[in-house]
Amino acid sequence: MTLPLPSFYDPKRVGELYLERAAQIAETALDYRLRHGLRPAGQDRYRIAAFGIDCQVGFCTPGASLFVPGAVEDTQRTLEWLYRNLDRLTGLHFSMDTHRVFQVFHPAWWIDVEGKHPGPFTPVTYEDVRSGKWRPISHPRECLEYCKKLEATGKYVLTIWPYHTLLGGVSHALVPALMEAAIFHSLTRLHQTHFETKGTHAMTENYSVLSPEVHELGSQVVGGFNSAFFKLLMDYDRVYVFGQAKSHCVLATLQDLEQHIKATDPGLLDKVYILEDAMSPVPPPPLDPLPPGLDFPRIAAQGIERFRQAGMHIVKTTDPVVL
Question: What is the pTM of this model?
Answer without folding.
Answer: 0.96
